[in-house]
Amino acid sequence: MNDPETTLDTRFSAPDAEPTTWQATQAVLENAQITWLTTVRADGRPHVTPLVAVWLDGALHFTTGPEEQKAVNLAANPNVVLTTGSDTWDEGLDVVVEGEARRVTAREALERLAAAWRTKWDGQWQYEVGDGAFRNDIGGPALVFAVDPAKVLAFGKGRFSQTRHVPR
């Protein structure tokens, strides 16, 4: 998502609040060490799990094994919410991304994403690309998904604000 429409929701913001810029919101997505993924099980129950996500080319990306609950849920319903921020009350910025997860299988895209993952956590995330997925020495394939944001919410703390970013 580039140059989204940005609006402040004054109902949930301090009287003197300003909308959070897209640049500040994007910086949180780029720098987050942990992101929480919410998917929906086939019976409608939510499933939430922490993971390492990568912001690249206007989308948030994550991985999962083909047998993991995340992958099972996504096969039935691609709608997800990704959340990151901090557990403080009076400072920081929490960000929520809503959208549909789509599988990434193109080798060139996977190579670029593997390089981006290597920048996370001092290079601890090392992936090779093969057969439309990531490979590593931990186990089987890691499926890669991209979420093009349908909506991004930024919750400023301290001087409270709720900002909405949507694609133009």
Automatic annotation (TrEMBL):
InterPro entries reported for this sequence: F420H2_bilvrd_red/Heme_oxyg (IPR052019), Pyridox_Oxase_N (IPR011576), Split_barrel_FMN-bd (IPR012349)
One Gene Ontology term, aspect cellular component: cytosol
Keywords: Oxidoreductase
Occurrences of domain Pyridoxamine 5'-phosphate oxidase N-terminal (ranges): 23-149
Pfam families: PNPOx_N
Keyword match Oxidoreductase: yes
Gene Ontology molecular function: coenzyme F420 binding; oxidoreductase activity, acting on the CH-CH group of donors
PANTHER family given in the database record: HEME OXYGENASE HI_0854-RELATED, PYRIDOXAMINE 5'-PHOSPHATE OXIDASE-RELATED FMN-BINDING
Listed name of the protein: Pyridoxamine 5'-phosphate oxidase family protein
Organism ancestry: Bacteria, Bacillati, Actinomycetota, Actinomycetes, Micrococcales
